[in-house]
Amino acid sequence: MKVGYNCSDKCHLCDAEGWHNLGPAANWRRSIGARSSSPFHACRIPLMDIPGLDRPEYIHPDTCHCFHIGWGKDLAASSIILLAKKRHWPGRSLDIRLEAAFADYISFLNARCKSTGVDGFSKQHFKMSSNADWPTTHGGKGHDTALILGWLEDFLSRS
Asked: Are 34 and 40 in contact (CB under 8 A)?
């Protein structure tokens, strides 16, 4: 299939162009089941001879691809930025507060013998061009989304 996080086509079921608009009035909702182009690559593969596999609506989305490496990454990173902007960590600048947040995140992971692929919280890691921008990634893998959201739940319960 020619859809995914790094592709302009985000969904094999609709014409969504991004992960960000999940509202009831989102434009992509009208295109569910009526994509303007095929989500499949043009090359023929034997698996496509299995009855039903030629219809994209028979391929069901899974939570890993939709959440953990999709909009969940945005949710995790945006939550960190929102809390940092609301001064939930010490520091005069956003960057210093993000460093404090990352230190707390690492402490959370160490206490639970977990590891992460995220090597820092910063505007650069979150692909933000300015303090007014919002992140589109946390810079890690799908597993890191679950770790960050678990840490945020723990952090907020302590705040």
From this structure: no
Q: Would you state the pLDDT for residue 116?
A: 97
Residue 126 shares a structural domain with residue 145: yes
Measured between alpha carbons, how far is 19 from 71 in angstroms, rounded to an integer?
Answer: 5
Rg for the chain, CA atoms, rounded: 19
Question: Is the domain of 56 the same as that of 78?
Answer: no
Q: Is residue 55 located within the same domain as residue 107?
A: no
Whether the pLDDT of residue 56 is over 80: the answer is: no
Helices (H), 36-130: 63, 72-85, 94-111
**Mean pLDDT calculated for residue range 90-106:** 98
Cα distances (Å, whole numbers) of residue 155 to 10, 16, 34, 79, 148 = 32, 33, 43, 12, 10
**Cβ neighbours, 10 Å, residue 35:** 19
